[in-house]
Write a structure and sequence with these properties.
Layout lengths: L16 E2 L1 H8 L1 H8 L8 H13 L11 E11 L4 E13 L13 E10 L8 H17 L5 E6 L4 E6 L2 H20 L9 H4 L5 H4 L9 H10 L2
Parallel strand pairs: 1-3, 4-5
Antiparallel strand pairs: 2-3, 3-4, 5-6
Helix pairs in contact: 1-2, 1-4, 1-5, 4-5
Length: about 230
């Protein structure tokens, strides 16, 4: 039996954590803790552009017509097995020609859901975005009693879709990160910063995570710069 079918813990609704946190914790545990435990947030140009993009995608007045599919925007998701909740940017219910699928109200035929997550930038080397997308699909599978093999990431910078295979390895990452996220949330401890400036400098949380004084090689160096600004 596939490993991803072996998770059996059931969470209560008040224990659910945000699906978006999977992307954060896969990138940086401290970033996740600052946002989801300490409830801190700071914004830069990238996060602001992403917020605007998601606002447009979730707009119920924005209509999309796709032949052979029913398009749903801003669909609420949850999984009591994974302990996750969130909102899918877009779910395309694609009509099936074979005998596998689910029924939709006021529709004939069978359909399979295909989540589409919108991101402002471009495809990344890490699996951060793919993990979040896979978690959305796993929530849909639990809610609708179906199996989803593929989903899509749409990147605003390239204006292209990336098809993601929801294989066992990716599903296992979702399960392991979900469990780890719940463990850290129960402990309520924010990890110490791991100062990798080549990565951290693009993070919107850098000034909260690592205030400027932390980046100085000495106290004297810090005061020299402060005095220059007076």
């Amino acid at each position: 039996m596939l490993k991803y079918l072996n998770y059996s813990k059931n969470y209560q609704e008040d224990q659910l954590l945000a699906i978006s946190g999977l992307q954060h914790i896969a990138f940086c545990e401290r970033q996740w803790a600052l946002i989801h435990i300490e409830q801190q947030w700071d914004e830069n140009l990238r996060t602001a552009e992403g917020r605007v993009l998601h606002g447009r995608v979730h707009d119920p007045e924005y209509k999309t017509y796709k032949p052979g599919a029913v398009v749903v925007r801003g669909m609420t998701l949850q999984s009591l097995s994974l302990g996750l909740y969130g909102v899918a940017d877009v779910v395309e219910f694609v009509e099936q020609q074979g005998g596998v699928g689910i029924s939709l109200p006021n529709r004939t035929g069978l359909y399979l859901p295909r989540p589409v997550e919108y991101k402002r930038g471009k495809s990344k080397q890490g699996d951060y975005d793919r993990i979040q997308l896979c978690a959305q699909a796993m929530c849909l599978e639990e809610m609708l009693n179906c199996h989803i093999e593929e989903a899509d990431l749409y990147y605003g910078e390239t204006r292209r879709r990336e098809t993601v295979k929801l294989d066992t390895e990716l599903r296992d990452e979702v399960i392991e990160l979900s469990q780890h996220m719940h463990k850290l949330h129960e402990e309520g401890i924010t990890p110490k910063p791991d100062m990798k400036l080549s990565v951290c400098k693009s993070c919107s949380m850098i000034n909260i995570c690592m205030p400027r004084i932390r980046l100085k090689t000495s106290v004297q160096g810090y005061w020299n710069e402060v005095l220059k600004e007076l």
